Amino acid sequence: MSEMLRAPAEVKYADELDYLESVDTGPKPFSWRLSPRMVRLFVLGSERADGLEREIPQKWFGDRSFVERSIVTLASDRGLLLIGDPGTGKSWLAELLSAAICRNSTLVVQGTAGTTEDHIKYSWNVSMVIAKGQSRESMIPSPIMTAMEQGVVGRFEELTRSTSDVQDALISILSEKYVSIPELNDDNIVFAQPGFSIIATANSRDRGVNDLSSALKRRFNFVRIPVVTNKRSEAEIVRFRTEELLRRHRIELDVPPTLLDILLQSFADLRAAAASATSDDEKLESALSTAEQIGVLEDAILHSQFFGDRTLRVETLAGSLMGSLARRNPEDLAILNKYLHGVVEPRAKQNGEGWAGFLDGGRQAIASLS
Amino acid sequence: MTTATAPDDPHRTTGDGSGTAGAGVAAGPFGALREQLTDAAATFAGSADALAGILAGIVDDVDRALGERLEIFPVCHHSPASALAMVRRLRHKQPKVIYLELCEDLQPLLGELRNCRLPVAVQAFASELDGFPAEWGPLSVVAPVTEASAEYQAIAYALETPGVELVLVDRSTDHVFQWSPRDDAGPAGATGPTDDAGPTDGTGPAAVTASTGGAGEQAALHGDAVGVEIGDLRPRFAELEAYLLHHGKVRHWSEWWDQYVERPLAGADHDTYRQVMVLIGSLFRRLRPAGSDRTERDEDRERYMWTRMREHLAASGADPADCLYVCGAFHAASRVAQFGLDSPAPDFAITPRTGTRWRYGLIPSSHSAIEAQFGLAPGSVSIAAATWTKAVSGSGLTPFRLDGQRGGKGRGRRKVAAVAAPTGPMADRLSGFLAAPPPLDGLDEAELRGWCVDIVRLARRNGYLASTADAIAVFETSILLAGLRNRARPTPYDFADAAVTCIEKDVVPGRRDVRRLCEILLGGDRIGQVGYDALPPLARDVLDRLQPLGLDLEKRTIGRALLDLHATPALTGCSDLLWMLRHLLPADAVRPIMGERRLGHRSIQESWDLALGRHQRALIELGYEGVTVEQVLEQRLRRAVRGTDATAAGALAAVEDAIRLLNSPRLVDELGARAVELLATERTVDDAPEVLRRIRRLLAHHRATAPALPAWCEAFVTTGYAHYCTLLPTAFVEEETGVRQVGAMLGFLFSMESLALSLGCDRSQLELAVAQSHPESPAKVALLWAARHQLGLLPLAELRERCAELLANPLVVPAFPRYLSGFVHALEPVPGLAPFVVETMSTAFARLPDPVLLPWLPTLITTLREHGPELVPLLVREAARTFPGTLPELDAWVPPWLAPAPTPTPSAVRVGPVGQVHTLLAAHPAAVEAVAALLGCDGGWSTPQATPAGPSESALVAAHPDTVEAVAALLGGG
Ligand SMILES: Nc1ncnc2c1ncn2[C@@H]1O[C@H](COP(=O)(O)OP(=O)(O)O)[C@@H](O)[C@H]1O
Ligand SMILES: [Mg+2]
């Protein structure tokens, strides 16, 4: 299992989850594997006051009340909808929660314009139907139906991207808590077992793509996840994800703290610039989310590892940053160029440390891009 | 990740020696609090030694405070537990003297509290400073008083019980500012909006979730006053607070306090109460950053208070055993040498107050204003108030209340026998802290269910699609959340979170979001009101004088007043007062809906929206400036023209206001004279357009209303004439001076010319000034040409020729729009040029080749829009007159400037009034010539003998009678 390209949370943190389950004495709702308090502890990390022998690191960063509200929602009979800008860690939180609650975060439906009712109910294995006729064996249950049968958490990513037909089907699943299979004569109803719940995510940037009906909204509790603007938490997220990445690629590489500062600062600068821009042309296309930051660092690390001399340099970081943010030529390039000239250059002159290298690297990257 | 530097034993705490606080203390009502505090101490102490020092020190502090001969009663603001403990103590001890931590000079005001509905704030205000940097002014200090506070209990007890003396012992408001650092912007900048609240830098614990839904108005009730509060108890640096919040698993300070202190303390006895409060105060004190200004100020205040108390005891001979010293828990743990009645330390040298004249009053406050000022989470003061009400009814205690206090429920003041509180032995200092039974905290199930139903109803009324199912969900979620957060029963904070989770969706349908609705539900913002008797004389006077309107002006709603001054002339006084208030108060306080008062114009009917109740603070603060509105207005107008940044235009505005609002010729003359002085010393002409606009208006007004111009007007015209003549050549060349400004100067010079000349000015001054002007920028060149044309030095034909040359020269063509813009500005001083400007533009369009013209057009439009928006209409009107209105006409149309000079046919012209006018015109030919030139009529002057009224003149006069009449008035004829 450890050879997976990217292990799901329940695999990656199997040790921790086993340990927590072994010390958990709190009451557990339904078929939950952990009590709500332990779920919170798994997601947000342990304190000394929790009195555990083993330190549990924090995995999701943000206001604890978001996590608490999410957990109690799952213990009630409503679905949980995490809504927020892209890259705010909604999917990650959903994964962590389902891993902690039922050790299965992989029952996922991806919402797209092409998602059909089959994707959330069931479909048929055509060759088996031809051979044996329609029966429960020849039926392929969707991840959601599987979650119902097992009484675990099913996930629905990007709910607003799916069409209203799909949303309607979801309403009946969430309210009636069963799915009927009219094609079969008997054994034709799948009931949701206790513990079944749904965590959906929705991107607030493309709200209106397929606006949720009020009937569906009523069946979900909304938890809005804001963009992290606090530099310290953001630094923690980036550091956390990077360490994980290094481990995953088995890379021995140091990410110097000054470099991390430069990354965070440059994003903060660019966000401030985007906030004061008056038209879309003056704004980078990128949302400048934390996830994007991680992406930049990841790219820089991989680049240094495989094409460089295995030390992470600020020039490389600058190159990765320009490369990932310059999506439109000439608009984005112009903005980045202006940023280098107007902000980075004075800073490099003032306190050379790092920023001079950033300037060089950035200039080179822009020259090669334009 | 923040990892605490683990001490060997986190639980080895304050109990060392006494043996009562060994391991296993996590039990009991205060277990959680102890754990919180010791963890924090361990983290911030730095080393195990330092930690041991801190913990021993805390025990010392508690001993010292509790052992003091003068009983110290530590309090915390907005803490119902504190207020409840106070009630119990007062009933039991019945002290004779109460020393209170509050600015001593506020004492006389406290009696006025009974005339108010709480919360109100006691205010000290000074606008004329003496001994403080002038730029600090006005100085303002507010101390809000809420009903659910320990200090209100102490005040009410002292004022209502015969023979009890209340002594305020904290430094005076004057000292608040004396002790402010003097470096930068002002006291507010230096101390933040509050003098006493917790970390106020923006980076502080950011856990306070701002709630949308505009409570802005109520939150701004205190204006930008410096806030002081009794009983501030909050970590003194952001990291400590952040640490406590993080480890306490709560979102903001109020919630931390509620969970870890308030609820466990609710049932505590006197000793336990005091121990816990001093302990917290001591810890925060010991962990505060060393050597900050604030620390020094705190300690000076403590020295001050102890000195005052000793002085009072010595003077009054009171027995310390009968006294109670009420102060913030922070000050109870003080280490200053003056602490304690038996301290041998010399008294603190109290500096005299400055010469600043302080004025005192009460202003309305509100829960949200207090929250905003002291950095508390929105809704927390309201929740404290609700908790207080509930705790009072549950405890069987009767709180103290000032006689006649308005608002709240009129509880009877029945005397309750003193509750006998057990006085436990001192040595056993922390056992109560640990051994009391777990209190019943949180909400009753029935109460919670009620809230769930109410929030759904409230949400529906605010546009949410909420249903009974939501009420059930909120109930269930509240309980789940409380369980997750380790609380036996849900707190209001859990309830609010649950409601947000279950009801809030992606958009807020109305003005208020669910969190705000919860705040409203849990007591809502309470807004205080200052009663009539506690108002300053000016405010009472205003209310009295507006009585005839028949509105209840103390209400917080908007009242509509209708004044028919024709039918009820007696209301004129109200109208006058309203216009003055309009000038002095914020725009929303008194707003005219119909009617206006301009120079020389009063409306017969007026209607007003009055919200004086809602703007009580503004009215009260006006009362600090004077006894009547007239007096304040006069002072303000005087100040406006005397200040260092006063300008001539501003002074003219003040003159106008004085005429409009005060009808005091003496003041008008004074202000006008000042305007002349200001104009003469002005070095820039930036304000020239404004000056021109205003003086024109004032001249017209005076001419219409008085036989002769006031002396200052004449002086202004002659001074202005000389002044602008002198500055003209520089203004023409200086780059910083805009075309608009030069245009306005010329406007002044030309339109005031005849008056100025009649008052003894010399025309050659102007001619000389124009001759000395050598502008370079195209716009100003055009302006100069126009001026010379006006002076008769440049005939129209020549002007036309020059423009033609410009258009013919490809090198100059790109600059042509700027010439045009100059001409447009010339319309101000030389309105007669309008036809010519239209002509020039048309010619430009006709003559320029497309490749030049097309890119040129946008520039033209933007230039026009930028430089002369007010003159464009004039131009458009002229163009409308010039160009044909219909298509067929266009075919036959010949531009007037290409047509042969028209010979007017007398028969076609209606002959205007002749007799008198003619005599007049004949007597003053210069004026008619000027007017004719101005209006673009160059028909020539026909001899009066031949034809009594030349056809072109009479045509002119007939077409523009107003002008001639004005001229006639000007010359005193007619
Ligand atoms: N608050 C957070 N805590 C931890 N990781 C985060 C957080 N926000 C973003 N990330 C990181 O960013 C990555 C992308 O986040 P994701 O969950 O896919 O965002 P979303 O679903 O909101 O678009 C995650 O894998 C996670 O590593
Ligand atoms: Mg996602």
Brief account:
The complex is a heterodimer of chains A (370) and B (974). Chain A has 370 residues and is an alpha/beta fold. Chain A is 51% helix and 11% strand.
Topology of this structure?
The complex is a heterodimer of chains A (370) and B (974).
Chain A: H1 9-12, H2 14-23, H3 36-44, H4 64-75, E1 79-84, H5 90-102, E2 108-110, H6 117-120, E3 122-124, H7 126-132, E4 139-141, H8 143-150, E5 153-157, H9 164-176, E6 178-180, E7 189-191, E8 197-203, H10 214-218, E9 220-225, H11 231-249, H12 257-276, H13 290-307, H14 314-325, H15 331-350, H16 355-369
Parallel strand pairs in A: 1-8, 1-9, 2-5, 5-8
Antiparallel strand pairs in A: 3-4, 6-7
Helix pairs in contact in A: 3-4, 3-5, 11-12, 11-13, 13-14, 14-16, 15-16
Chain B: H1 31-45, H2 48-67, E1 71-75, H3 80-93, E2 97-103, E3 120-126, E4 139-145, H4 150-160, E5 165-170, H5 173-178, H6 187-191, H7 216-219, E6 226-227, H8 238-248, H9 253-265, H10 270-286, H11 293-316, E7 323-328, H12 329-332, E8 359-364, H13 367-373, H14 380-395, H15 431-435, H16 445-461, H17 468-484, H18 492-503, H19 514-521, H20 537-545, E9 559-564, H21 572-584, E10 590-594, E11 597-598, E12 601-602, E13 605-610, H22 616-623, H23 629-642, H24 648-662, H25 665-681, H26 688-705, H27 711-733, H28 739-751, H29 753-758, H30 763-771, H31 778-790, H32 796-808, H33 816-826, H34 834-847, H35 850-867, H36 872-882, H37 887-892, H38 915-923, H39 925-934, H40 951-959, H41 961-970
Parallel strand pairs in B: 1-7, 2-5, 2-7, 4-6
Antiparallel strand pairs in B: 3-4, 3-8, 9-13, 10-13, 11-12
Helix pairs in contact in B: 1-2, 1-8, 2-10, 3-4, 3-14, 16-17, 16-19, 17-18, 18-19, 23-24, 23-25, 24-25, 24-26, 25-27, 26-28, 27-28, 27-30, 28-31, 31-33, 32-34, 33-35, 34-36
